[in-house]
Amino acid sequence: MLAMDTDETSKKIAHAKAVAAEAQDTAARMQSQLQDMHRNVERWQGQYKGLQSQDLGPVVLDAGRSVSTLEKTLPQLLAKLNLLQDRGAHNASLALSASIGRVRELIAQARGAASKVKVPMKFNGSSGVQLRTPRDLTNLASYTALKFYLQSPEPTAGQVVGDQFVLYMGGHQATGDYMGVALRGQRVHWVYQLGGAGPATLSIDEDIGEQFAAVSIDRILQFGRMSVTVENRMVQETKGDTVAPGAEGLLNVQPDDFVFYVGGYPSNFTEVLLSVWPELPAGVCPDCALCPQPPEPLRFPGYRGCIELDTLNEEVVSLYNFEKTFQLDTAVDKPCARYLTFPPLTGSSKSTGDPWLTDGSYLDGSGFARISMESQFSNTKRFDQELRLVSYSGIIFFLQHQACPLDQFLCLAVQEGKLVLLYDFGAGLKEADPLQQPPPQLTATSKAIQVFLLGGNRKRVLVRVERTTVFSVEQENVLELADAYYLGGVPPSQLPASLRQLFPSGGSVRGCVKGIKALGKYVDLKRLNTTGISAGCTTDLLVGRAMTFHGHGFLRLALPSDAVPLTGDVYSGFGFRSSQDSALLFQRESLGGPCEVTLQQGHVTLRLARTELKTQERFDDGAAHYVTFYSNSTGVWLYVDDQLQEMKPYRGPRPQPQPAGPPQLLLGGSPKADDVRNFSGCISNVFVLRLLGPQRVFDLQENLGSFNVSSGCTPAPRTQLPEQVPQGLRATVSRKAARRSRQPAQDSACSPPGSLRTIRDAYQFGGPLTSYLEFAHVPASPSDWSQLSMLVRPHAPRGFLLLAVPQTASSPSLLLFLNHRRFVDQTEGPGPQLRVQSRQRSRTGQWHTVSVRWEKSWIQLVTDGVWAQSQEWLGRQHQGQQGPRPHTLFVGGLPASGHSPRLPVAISRAGFRGCVKRLRLDGRLLGAPTRMVGVTPCFSGPLEKGLFFTGSGGAVTLDTLGATLPDVALELEVRPQTATGLVFHLGRGQTPPYLELQVLGKQVLLWANDGAGEFSTLVTRPEALCDGHWHRLGVTKGGNVLRLEVDQQSNHTLGPVPATWTNTLVPLHLGGLPEPWKRPPYNGCVRNLVLNQVLVTWPPTAGVQGAVGASGCPAT
Question: What's the CA gap between 269 and 261, in Å, rounded?
Answer without folding.
Answer: 9
